[in-house]
Amino acid sequence: MDIATLLTFFLLCISSATAHNDKEQAAQPDGYLSTRTCEGTQDTSSSDTCSIEKSHGDNIYLSLWEKSLDQAYQTLNLDFIQHMEAGDLPVDRYVNFTIQDIYYLVKVTDMLKNMSTSVKKPEDLRQFFQGRYSSYKRFQDHLLSIFYRKGVSDIKPTPAMRKYVSDYETIMRTKEPIYFAVSLLPCSRLWVWLANKVDMAPSNAYYAWKKDNMGGRPEKHYETLLNKYLTLNNTEAYHIFRTQMQNEHDFFATS
Length: 255
Known about the structure:
Layout: H1 3-15, H2 19-27, E1 37-38, E2 41-42, H3 49-54, H4 60-66, H5 69-76, H6 79-86, H7 91-118, H8 123-146, H9 159-174, H10 177-197, H11 207-214, H12 219-229, H13 235-253
Antiparallel strand pairs: 1-2
Helix pairs in contact: 1-7, 2-8, 5-13, 7-8, 7-9, 9-13, 10-11, 10-13
């Protein structure tokens, strides 16, 4: 890829923010990922107190996150995130990151299509997967059109991305559908948190990433559902959540 093409691609990447965030925005016309909330109010501070306090109740949605904060901080401290925050991340690294994210989006959308038709009961879980698929599909189509792509068959996934997608596929094939919902949550939860943590001025070339990813409310789609079907002592849910948090970490670490 020559320099002119690379710069053009970079500008497209920045203008479209990120695949992870926008698929949530497409999912909720009223607002995919506004700031992290506590008691229904926005929390843009650096404190994680509200989540930690609430997770002492019977809220596995919050407990999953609390017990994985170590992984969140490890991701925040990665070279890729730190250089984004400083505004000196090389363009080619962000472009490659975005290409891999497009691959992720298309593969996860395909799996959500499968879940949206295969899950018949219970009704709220069926509606969850239909809603997630509709959201991801709209954004996938939008993103592919922006980059003039028909698919991702020519994108070679990195080892980290290949493992991430493979773990999704294994969960889809071998676990109850509620666990696939759990597997989707780390992406949504982590990106909001990272965007609120990084200190970027509007003049930073990557400020659009921060701005767009700050705006999300994953609890709108996940909290009631997970708390209804999972208990705090569900070790499988914690294992899957931490596995996917590690996959997110490794995606950033190898970008």
